[in-house]
Give the backbone structure.
Amino acid sequence: MDLLLWGVMPYVAVTLLIAGLVWRARYDRFGLTTHSSQLHESRLLRVGSPLFHFGMAFVVLGHVVGLLVPDSWTDAVGVSDHAYHLLAVSTGAVAGLAAAVGVGILVYRRLRVPAVRKVTLRSDHVMYAVLLGAMLLGLVATALNSSGVVDYNYREGVSVWFRGLFALQPDYHLMGAAPLAFKLHVVLGFALFALIPFSRLAHIVSAPFKYLFRPYVVYRRRDPRQLANREPKRGWERAS
Amino acid sequence: MRVMAQVAMVMNLDKCIGCHTCSVTCKQAWTNRKGTEYVWFNNVETLPGQGYPRRWEDQERWRGGWERTRSGRLRLRAGGRLRRLGRLFANPELPELSDYYQPWTYEYKNLTDAPAGDDMPVARPVSQTTGEPIGTIEWGPNWDDNLGGAPEHATKDPLVEKVRDEVGEKIRFEFEQSFMFYLPRICEHCLNPACVSSCPSGAMYKRVEDGIVLVDQDQCRGWRMCVTGCPYKKVYFNHATGKAEKCTFCFPRVEAGMPTICSETCVGRMRYLGVMLYDADKVTEAALVADEQDLYPAQLECFLDPHDPAVAAAARASGITEEWLDAARRSPVYDLIRTYQIALPLHPEYRTLPMVWYVPPLSPVVEAVAAAGRDGEDAGNLFGAIDALRIPVEYLAELLTAGDTYAVDAVLRRMAAMRAHMRRVNLGQERDGSIAAAVGLTGQEMEDMFRLLAIAKYEDRYVIPTAARADADALADTHPLEEGCPVTQDAYQVTQGGCPVSSPEGPGEPVLLNLAPTRRSA
């Protein structure tokens, strides 16, 4: 069981992520969009969306640092364990709470604003459930750990296992020994990875940083491939 | 000089009757789909009025277009690139659906399916976005059409707010004291498009061949910055597909040499389509002039004279075909913009260098002068009356020349002069050269202008070169027929240079297919 969950599952999730993205890029570029609903409602979105997105950006950054930087490195530059955890928990809590409040507003908006509820995708139900679960469990795990209810040093457990994934030799016993909250958080985290290509999360991979480097006005020649007789495309359904 | 070609449009507001046929045919052709219920690529606004979306001209609020920074650079009014990316998650300058209008339909089915009873079945209005019944419809795509509700709504016209202090008494909305005219609007297909420049994904582009601005639906990721960037609010967000959509200038028709559907179906015959050649190297410079009122002349400077042999040579060097050059020489749009200078750009102060221009409305000046007991078509009387027009020149200037009343005045004088000149012609009187000279034109030009504006024949209004011919020319250039002719039938008796010639009488002339409608003389 441990082997399946902590030795196989991550690779399955990453394979789904990559294969799914390749599939979308090749066959469904038209479907790749943020599905923004700002046209319908913007007052709640104005608060919720930046809170969630910027909060999440810092949460992801925190995960990268926490999981990828071994404690030997931080020891080497003279950061004590106590100082490290103080920093990690304080910044992590701010970012995590911002993201949680943000997603709370967004979910409330999705449920309560009729026009927004109407444009909710089928994939959104799964995606929101997994996202909320992952965020909640992450906050719970952190709270339990830092309040001393559970005494677990993830830098010697989860992080070591996670780095092992890159070497294709994950020490799955390490995860087997982790507290339940961490285990569930990791499972939902990988589920989220697997969901990226198949939900609105796909917009993550099209983050438009190249905008900073291109000339303002884009010129293009007519594309001869566009001229052939093509099937009518999605987006041309009749108005109800 | 880097010559580029653009298919541009001019609308003669003097002749717009506000029938909305252009809007309806455009809607039927392009936006009768799910997600675009509220979208009108072409709409007709009654001015003064708030427009669609409401108060779109209020750039303090929507921050569309460009601005010139203090250091003399061009920057999107909504902020630089980093600032734009920072607003991806919630764009404060994006109109909501309620700023356009809540699209609705009626429960027509009730009328036929309701069970027999004592009460008459009714068709309630229902929202097309939520499907819920709407109690009261409060706004629509042309709610203030023909000044409907003007005392309440028209005072919120951003242009009225701007010129009110200046003009004061002249802008009134009481019965028989108001003024109005129609403004049909489509995408401006600008030379310096702010929407294209706002697109984080690089999905929007301006076509090299004809200058049409389009959205690549496969590349758009729904960041919706283009909607903010466009000061004319002519890029729309399809809420069903999550992609931006906009007026396509009916490119499939234009490529085939046909006018756009809005032009084709224009009842008032007030739209003109033709090729403009411009110098791409001058575009940035023109968009950057310090004084907003210099933007109109600066854009005029960008346009190139297709009759100039140097321009033609440069155009050929940049790959513009003979068919396009010929169309540029016969372009009605060029004549209205450059030769007669009676067309003006819409809101040049947005610095996007728009390419759909407008001939301002002159009516009903003749009637006004005649009502005062004077000769309504005498040039002197007409010139004098322009300042007293019911449509204040100041209002037109805010719309078309960034407030430069002199430029609008010059256009109106030219149109008035045309009336006076043509009256003499039609009454068989001797032509009075001084009338045309007073506005810087010749009598012949007056008569050509009259033909273009008043007679407005189909083939004079639309001079559109085809893309297919250009494709064929390009193909011929890349695949020259050097090694003889592909046709090797023995039936041909006479050959020349290895190629059979169809006529046995003499050296064969190349057979020309009449692809271009060449009715208007160059």
Notes: Chain B has 24 helices and 16 strands. Chain B has two domains: 23-102+139-264, 288-461. Chain B touches chain A through 56 residues (CB under 8 Å). The longest helix of chain B spans residues 405-426.
